Amino acid sequence: MSHEVEKPTYEVVGPLERFDERDNVFARERLTPGSLEERAYHALHPELVEVDRRLAAFIEGKAGDQPQDEDRMGAAFYSATFGPVAALAQPDVVDGPVSPQKVKADPAEMARRVKRLARYLGADLVRIGPLNPAWVYSHRGCPPFFEGYRANPPLFDGIPDGYRDLKWGDPIEISHRYAVSMAFAQDDRLMRTTPSPVSDLEVGQVYARSALASVQLARYIRALGYPARAHHLRNYGVLVVPVAADAGLGELARSGYLITKELGLNFQLVCITTDLPMALDRPVDLGVQDFCQKCLKCAETCPPRAIPRGERVVVRGVRKWKLDEVKCLLYWGHVGSACAICQVACPWSKPRTLFHRFVAEIATRVPAARRFLVWADDLVYGARFEPRPVPEWVK
Question: What domain range includes position 74?
Answer without folding.
Answer: 11-394
